[in-house]
Amino acid sequence: MYRTNHCGELRLQDAGKKVTLAGWVQKIRRMGGMTFIDLRDRYGITQLVFNQDIHAELCDQANELGREFVVQVTGTVSERSNKNKHIPTGDIEILVDDLVILNESVTPPFTIEENTDGGDDLRMKYRYLDLRRPNVKNNLVLRHKITFETRSYLNKQQFLEVETPILIGSTPEGARDFVVPSRMNPGQFYALPQSPQLFKQLLMVSGFDRYFQIAKCFRDEDLRADRQPEFTQIDCEMSFVEQEDILQMFEGLTKHLFKTIKNIDIQYDFPKMTYADAMKYYGSDKPDIRFDMKFVELKEAVSGNDFVVFDSSEYVGGICAKACASYTRKQIDELTDFVKRPQIGAKGLVYIRCEDDGSFKSSVDKFYSQDDLRRITKLFNAQAGDLILILAGDKGDTQKALSELRLLMGSRLGLRKTNDYKPLWVTDFPLFEWDEETQRYYAMHHPFTSPKKEDIPMLDKSTGDVRANAYDLVINGVELGGGSIRIHDSNLQNKMFELLGFTKEQAEKQFGFLMKAFQYGAPPHGGIAFGLDRLVSLFAELDSIRDCIAFPKNNAGRDVMINAPSAIDEMQLEELSIKLIETKS
Amino acid sequence: MYRTNHCGELRLQDAGKKVTLAGWVQKIRRMGGMTFIDLRDRYGITQLVFNQDIHAELCDQANELGREFVVQVTGTVSERSNKNKHIPTGDIEILVDDLVILNESVTPPFTIEENTDGGDDLRMKYRYLDLRRPNVKNNLVLRHKITFETRSYLNKQQFLEVETPILIGSTPEGARDFVVPSRMNPGQFYALPQSPQLFKQLLMVSGFDRYFQIAKCFRDEDLRADRQPEFTQIDCEMSFVEQEDILQMFEGLTKHLFKTIKNIDIQYDFPKMTYADAMKYYGSDKPDIRFDMKFVELKEAVSGNDFVVFDSSEYVGGICAKACASYTRKQIDELTDFVKRPQIGAKGLVYIRCEDDGSFKSSVDKFYSQDDLRRITKLFNAQAGDLILILAGDKGDTQKALSELRLLMGSRLGLRKTNDYKPLWVTDFPLFEWDEETQRYYAMHHPFTSPKKEDIPMLDKSTGDVRANAYDLVINGVELGGGSIRIHDSNLQNKMFELLGFTKEQAEKQFGFLMKAFQYGAPPHGGIAFGLDRLVSLFAELDSIRDCIAFPKNNAGRDVMINAPSAIDEMQLEELSIKLIETKS
Q: Distance (Å, rounded) from C-alpha B223 to C-alpha B479?
């Protein structure tokens, strides 16, 4: 061992001890005849002291060290005169009497500090240096803790972690698979799993009862911001359970993680909200409930005043921004510009200011009397000083736009603190989604999702209204996980295929394998999967998942550090029985 | 929840309780007016009783259940009159008063029993049913426990589990990579990692200090028996350590696993043996030291008696099989046939029987007097009743053949019990291997393996004799893990490349990326990786890794259950900018 202690552990009570440390040179300062070095390792920083008067030669040697040199020092722990209260080792320093350079370093391309001068591209290219920065390192420490505590909890609950294969078969539907040509089976391909869904359901057929896996999944999609071609899921499945059993189990997991990782003790049951209510009150299936500001539907209240925008709209709805009546014309124009951005897509914004004197000022004063406005603001329980913001248009689009406006106002009012966690179960998702283009229903979750028992009679007549035993865990507006109870009854499953427009032959071709397995005694079962990358970024209070992954890829799916993907040998292609198609680009 | 208890937990003290169980019908027996059902779940078997006299209708219903039906029953726990001592729930049974069929089952293609009538191919095709068999299920439970305890131990030792990417770049040397065409980067390919070697060394450069990962690895090799295209490693790396630190840490892990999983308390330090001694005394770099039977080199002792086979051989060596002098001519012929098999490749076998009367009987009596034979057997410390078996020929081949013979004799003498575990560190592996064909040295482990400090002066003159800081953990003749201290000094690394015959340009092309990272302050580091599949099979006392993997592939790399790999759509190929080469087969 090259050290007796690491750089984060020595304290005042260690004063007088002879120790050996090893690490990286973070900083060198010369003051009078003294040289001070901050020595860094994974655990922290310890100050080293070299005294020109005592060890001239050693001090000269220290003065020639460069940033990021790897050194080993031996010396005596000593109380500091100038204590540093910002670091745990700030009460002590090491009076060095031996120094060994273990390795030199060329000058790094950016500073190894929390606030670095390195841009994103440079940091990714030298990710191995970026990972030395304490904040990036801490994200990975956090990720380790989260997976460790997840396993501890699930192990205690008798879940078994089972590895399912990475080299599987291509599935015909859904997002694009990555494929892997098989050398031993020319012309044939493996696919990388988009999730272990098939295998976890098979494990239930096998009787494994409580399965989980922290599993790598792969999706060859065009990468929007904050997507990665490979990502990690906490994938779980249980047998002999109903929806409520699954919610309880994984609410327990979530609380366990908050307690052990963040020391946040959530004593209450997570609130539940139906998908219908989530859309009605928040215009989103993943509402941020750190703040209230619920939608109020106004169609009825505003109709009949000859304001054609409202009268002709399918939906009119608004939110009440507390104490924002003082917003200037300019500030309101900004909000209008925000909702009119193409990504949001609203046509305009109507406001009502609840003035301190009890009067109202609105952009639609022309159509609505003071009494009308009082009646409307009452629906929001608005107080003097509040600002009502109203959008109108198609129901779906307007709710979505209003949701964005709500989130913006929440942020502006400081109601979305990253360390204030508000979990929520969203339940009763629709079983089907109607697709206008192909004029057919699609399964909103997947074709094995079970309808709610009481909705089964509606399958034929009100297909679109049938609710699923499907649920999402949402925290602070982020969908952290989702799952469903699966169909285990083959008659019901056949009915589903029929409603989804599959012929018997198509269903057989696409899902026959799992259907066959289900003939041999499939138990009632259901499950859930959590996005680990998002979970870590939520706990790390980050906006992006990128820095929660040790070696992420960029938006073009490239690892710029190792320069992958890249061309391969002609010979290798030949062995795989494939050749390239010349592209016209 | 569909149940109050599982099928493995009810005991006599639960008698009188009302319980609900759910599971699979293992067996139905009718006796008089009673019907007995063995209900099975992951946790065990519980006997259900239906009484024709009490619940005639229920009993009729029970009689119509088939094997592997999924049922839910409610009833009262009751003491059995005929107790079954072979199962933990054998003291009780459930007097059923409610039965719900949760799912039916068609007749399974083989019996769901420890000793099944299903052949290997059928079992793999219906792996989801095979996994219901208690022995196969128990292997996966064991695998879960081993990974869980591995993580517990390493977490306690401040190791961080870091996920490294699965979509990486192709490496130019070594076994074949699986590759993945990139849709977004036409003509370019990712590769799947053969190990996280590169990334774990980068993490050391990043200062992560103690890394591990239970990592999927991939190798597109022709599959010999007991290899899988995807396999799992417990992959570890440490910084600021010397070889002895790594051996101690992972000896600790191994002992922790034996203690927590098998309840075997290994109090002693694992013995260490150099590679040179392993070859000299056991003819193998993974000696099975559950039994002694060391090789005795006889070249000197047997030369000069005009026995041309021995005189002309580079190597003559033998083993002493205790108390086997009574072997018949036929038995010895069998051994001779064994060593002459092409896989073993010996030309013949010489024996010396140490008779009870103190005389010797040998197949080479003609050349060796009784005194000669006494002198030879003394080298083995042979006793009356022992049998000496001798092989001669080229040193390497003969040692290998003698090693096989030793293992066979160990098995015959019952010295290789599967539950008798004898761990061993094999150390001081050669740094280089000479390849006759290409007339150059290759790195025995990999080009970053560090030579032993004291051997560095020999690098130029006695290259082949240089020993590495490389080590294997061997248990019962199985290589469970291996690793090395890495080179962190760039001068020494350049010297290595030179000795391996790389030009500066070649080294730059193949290893430049890692070498560049090493310029920024690489700490001294080293690591080890364990084969998880082998570790589980060792603990499960199995010969093969196949049944320690939930969904394994066959020797052609196929998953016969899901029929992967398989052909994919023309359109999908086109999107990936590749096409198939027609094969001539």
A: 18
- Cα(B200)–Cα(B217) distance, rounded to whole angstroms? 14
| A576 lies in some domain | no
Can you tell me the distance from the alpha carbon of B279 to that of B284, in angstroms, rounded to the nearest whole number?
A: 5
B345: left (phi over 0), alpha (psi -120 to 50) or beta: left
d(CA B164, CA B204): 13
Per the structure, the count of domains in chain B is 3
Q: Which of A43, A94, A37, A47 is nearest to A68 (CA)?
A: A37
Within this chain, do residues B142 and B251 fall inside the same structural domain, yes or no?
yes
Total H helices, total E strands in chain A: 16, 23
Instruction: State the Cα–Cα distance between residues B104 and B148, nearest whole angstrom.
Output: 35
Strands (DSSP E) contained in A382-498 are 387-393, 423-427, 432-435, 440-443, 470-475, 478-485
| A53 lies in some domain | yes
Both tokens assigned to A237: 């499945």
d(CA A567, CA A311): 60
DSSP secondary structure code for residue A260 in this structure: I
Is there a single domain that holds both residue A302 and residue A263?
A: no
User: The CATH number of the domain where A76 resides is what?
Assistant: 2.40.50.140
Q: How many CB atoms lie within 10 A of CB B460?
A: 11
Candidates A122, A203, A222, A240, partner chain B, best to mutate (most B CBs within 10 A)? A240
Helix and strand element counts for chain B (H, E): 16, 23
Q: Is residue B128 part of a domain?
A: no
Task: Say which amino acid occupies B584.
Answer: K
CATH code of B346's domain: 3.30.1360.30
| A397 and A316 in a common domain | yes
Contact check, Cβ <8 Å, B148/A164: no
Three-state SS sequence of B471-489: EEEEECCEEEEEEEEECCC
Is the pLDDT at A306 greater than 80? The verdict is yes
Residue A273's region, left for phi above 0, alpha for psi from -120 to 50, else beta, is beta
Establish if B544 belongs to a structural domain.
yes
Q: Which residue has the tokens 């106004």?
A: A298
Q: Chain centroid to CA A428: how far? A: 22
CA distance B123 to chain A (A): 13
ipTM (interface predicted TM):
0.95
Query: What is the DSSP pairing of strand A272-274 with strand B440-443?
Result: unpaired
The one-letter code for the residue type at B414 is G
Cross-chain Cβ contact A565/B205 below 8 Å: no
Question: How close B128 gets to chain A, by Cα (Å)?
Answer: 5
Which residue's structure tokens are 């040509």? A181
pLDDT by residue (tens digit) across B248-259?
Answer: 999 999 999 999
Task: Report the candidate in A233, A244, A269 with the shortest Cα–Cα distance to residue A469.
Answer: A244
Q: How confident is the model at residue B223 (pLDDT cuts 50, 70, 90)?
A: confident
pLDDT of residue A572: 85
pLDDT in tens, B117-136: 999 999 999 999 999 999 99
Domain that holds residue A219: 136-273+422-549
> Which among B160, B218, B521 is the nearest to A144, CB-wise?
B160
Contact (CB, 8 A) for B385 and B295: no
Size of interface A-B (CB pairs under 8 A): 346
Q: Considering the entire predicted model, what is its pTM? A: 0.96
Residue B165: is the preceding peptide bond cis (ω within 30°)?
Answer: no
Q: Where a domain ends, among A412, A445, A478?
A: A412
Same-domain pairing of B379 and B298: yes
Mutate which of B141, B149, B192, B240 to disrupt the A interface (most A C-beta within 10 Å)? B240
Please report, for residues A201, B241, B355, the alpha-carbon distance to residue B385 in angstroms, rounded to integers and kept in the order given: 60, 51, 6
pLDDT at B264: 98
**Bridge partners, residue B474, by sequence:** B424, B479
Mean of pLDDT values over A111-126: 93
pLDDT over threshold 80, residue B583? no
* A302: its two tokens: 């505003």
